TrEMBL record:
One of its GO terms (cellular component) is membrane. Gene3D superfamilies: alpha/beta hydrolase. Residues 40-320 form the AB hydrolase-1 domain. GO terms for molecular function: monoacylglycerol lipase activity. Residues 245-269 are annotated as: Disordered. GO terms for biological process: acylglycerol catabolic process. It comes from the Eukaryota. This is AB hydrolase-1 domain-containing protein. InterPro entries: AB_hydrolase_1 (IPR000073), AB_hydrolase_fold (IPR029058), AB_hydrolase_sf (IPR050266).
Amino acid sequence: MAQALLPLSRIETKVLSNGIHALVAGGASTSSAADSPGAPIVCMAGWPQTKEAYAEMVPLLARRHRVLVLDLPGLGASAAPGDQQQQQQQQGGGYSTGAISSILRSAVGAELGGGCAYHLVGHDVGAWVAAAWLRRFPSSLLSVTLMDSIVPGTFPALAFPPPDDVNRRLFQFSFNRLPPPLPETLVQGKERELLDWLFDAKAAHPERITRASRDLYAAAYARPGAMANGFSYYRAFDESVRQHELASEANDGVSGGGDGSSSSSSDDGVAVSVHVPILAIGGEQATGKTMERVLALSAEKKRSKLVIIPDCGHYVMEEQPEATAAEILMFVDAIDDEKK
C-alpha cells in the first residue's frame, strides 16, 4: 500500500555541522516491506534560490526516504566558508566546487553517520557541487541526479559574443564573475528586480515561482554579503573547471572498484574511476538534451540515463515538481531495490 503524502508540518529546519541549514523530513519506519524506507536523499538548490525551492518536492520524496535539503555555504541561511578561505574569495577559491563539496560532505556525514550511503541531487549551482562531490567522494554515493545546469568542465566554452538567446539565458556567467564590488554595487537594493528578471526569463512557467517564493529569495539575497557569496560561486568557476580536469586526469586509465558502484577516494578528494549511476534531468525549454553531457562523469552507463521534463524551463523543482520528483524516485528506488 502506498504511503500518504508527508504533511508539511513534518518538514523541519535543522542546523547541521559547519553551519549548514537544512530542511529535514521523512525517515519513519513503515509496516509494509514494499514501502520500507529507502536510502536518504540529499538535495541542493542553486543561485539565486535557497533550500525552499524543493518545498513542493520534499513531501513527495519523503514518502519512503529521509530527505535533507541543504542551503549551500554562504547562501540562504547557511554560514559562509570558514575564515581561512576568505582571502581567496575575490578569486572565488573558497567557493570552488571542490571546497564546497568537502564542507557539505562533512556536514551530511555527521548527520547521517559516516557509513551511511545516500542519493545526491543537485540543481543549477547545486549540480556543480554534486558533480564535484561525485568526482571527489564517490564511496558514500548510491546515485547522483544533476538537474538543468552548466556543470563546470562538462560543457565547451561559450563563443563571444554569444547569440542573443544564449546571452539571455547565461549572462550571469559573465556578470556574476566580474571582480567585486561592481556587480554587488549594481544590484544592491535591486535584488528583487534581478531575481524577478531571472525567473521570468528562464522559466517556461514563471507564475509557478510564486510571489511568496520570490519574496523569500529576495529577502535571503538582500542580507549583507549574500549576493557577494552567490557571485563567488561564479568567480570560482575556472578553479572548479581546473579541479574537474585534474580529477579526470587522475581517472584516466585507472580501473574502478569491484563493487560496481564506485571506487574509493583519497583524503584530498581525488577520486578513481567513478561508477555511480547518474540521472541527468533537463527542462525541455532550458538546458534540455544537452544535459546528456554530464553522463560522462561516471563510467556507469547501464543504469545512468537522461530525462527531459516536458513543458518546463530551468526551474524544474517549482515548474514541474510532481514530474521531477517522480523521475527521481523511479531512479533511486530502482537502485535501492537492487541492494535488497
